Amino acid sequence: MTRPEPALSVVVPMFNEESVLPLFARRLRAVLDALDEPYEVLAVDDGSTDGTAAGLAGLRARWPQLRVLRLRRNSGHQAALVAGVLRARGRHVVSIDADLQDPPETIAEMLRRARADGLDIVYGVRADRSRDTRFKRWTAAGYYRLMRRLVGKQVPAQAGDFRLLSRAAVEALRELPERSPVLRLVVPWLGFPSGEVAYEREERAAGRTKYPLSRMAGLAAESVTSFSAAPLRVATWLGLAGVAVCGMLVVVAVVAWLAGGTVTGWPSLYVAILFLGAVQLLCLGLLGEYVARIYTAVQARPAYFVATDTDTDTDTDTDTDTDTVPAPEAGPAPAGPVGPAELADSLR
Ligand code: UDP
Ligand code: MG
């Protein structure tokens, strides 16, 4: 690295945020300048088609700490976040939305918590969502409940993408082979020491939400499928249930046949249809099991992260002799309940 590391990077994904940009920049800059430490603001222009790019260029002339990363096309909030976080240079990296729903003032508190308590991750947790619509609150509550079931209790409820990461956590993310991780699930899964800072979710200061229902549904679907092979097992369970029901109905058919109250040909047809249906579902389930195996293999997530090893000088060392399991150069990353096998177990 040629340039010195700033103490803090603030990553801001932006998609068509021209109306909120001046307001946001003013509030963020006031907070960051007051920190009195070197910082960078990394605005990720997610292929905006309005005046966002021009606005950012204008700001840059007066705000040397502003860095702009423009994505070639609109790639979505998560992708923009990943692009920014992985390119940030700071010793701490905070991601924040541009619409002032996450108050920039909380950044100072996050940084203070991280330093005081030696935390690698500090989540901004929404203390009050009364200003979100009821629908948004319901869907969010459902989403977080599901995610805590899938990933584990370390996923904080009501924590979106407003969070602070240490350099070690960012490096651990970088080592993940995944191309498009769902950060709000993968970050807790890394197992770093973490804390929470409560904040009040404000109303969008200007402009409209870029998260219509279809995108929320897309994020939920991606969250589930990126952490769980459970949907693939549906066929197995249906097949097993089908076999059980088939068994009972075969008995019914045989009894009816013996009693002589059946149309000729009905029992044999009936049994054949039931049997074939159940067998097909079971075979689909079996395929699903193998697809699930392929899926975890392709994800190639490390089975564990080494937090410390008394046998090495620095705690950022990683084992070089783990040839089957790639151990990323995560810093002090305590091993959480990780590993595809355990994950798969927890999903059953
Ligand atoms: N965003 C983005 N790319 C997109 C959609 C959204 O970079 O394709 C940014 C957006 O500019 C904002 C943040 O992601 O800074 C959160 O989006 P938004 O506020 O619209 O979502 P909501 O708060 O309504 O869930
Ligand atoms: Mg918003």
Give the topology, please.
Elements: E1 8-14, H1 21-35, E2 39-45, H2 52-62, E3 66-70, H3 77-87, E4 92-95, H4 105-117, E5 121-128, H5 134-151, E6 159-166, H6 167-175, H7 183-189, E7 194-200, H8 213-227, H9 234-258, H10 266-299, H11 340-347
Parallel strand pairs: 1-2, 1-4, 2-3, 5-7
Antiparallel strand pairs: 4-6, 5-6
Task: State the total count of DSSP E strands.
Answer: 7
What global shape is seen?
elongated
| Alpha plus pi helix count | 11
User: C-alpha Rg, in Å?
Assistant: 26 Å
Strand arrangement, major sheet = 3-2-1-4-6-5-7
Low-confidence stretches: 315-348
Strand percent estimate: 5-15%
- Overall SS class: alpha/beta
Query: Which hetero ligands occur in this complex?
Result: uridine-5'-diphosphate, magnesium ion
**N-to-C span:** 45 Å
The percent range for helix content is 40-55%
Q: Whole-number average pLDDT?
A: 84
Describe the model.
By secondary structure, the chain is α/β, with parallel strands linked by helices. 48% of the residues lie in helices and 13% in strands. It is built from eleven helices and seven strands. The protein has helices spanning 21-35, 52-62, 77-87, 105-117, 134-151, 167-175, 183-189, 213-227, 234-258, 266-299, 340-347; strands at 8-14, 39-45, 66-70, 92-95, 121-128, 159-166, 194-200. A seven-stranded mixed β-sheet has the order 3-2-1-4-6-5-7, sandwiched between helices. Helix 2 links the parallel strand 2 (39-45) and strand 3 (66-70). Helix 5 runs parallel beside helix 8 (213-227) and helix 9 packs antiparallel against helix 10. Mean pLDDT is 84; it is low at 315-348. Magnesium ion (MG) binds next to loops.
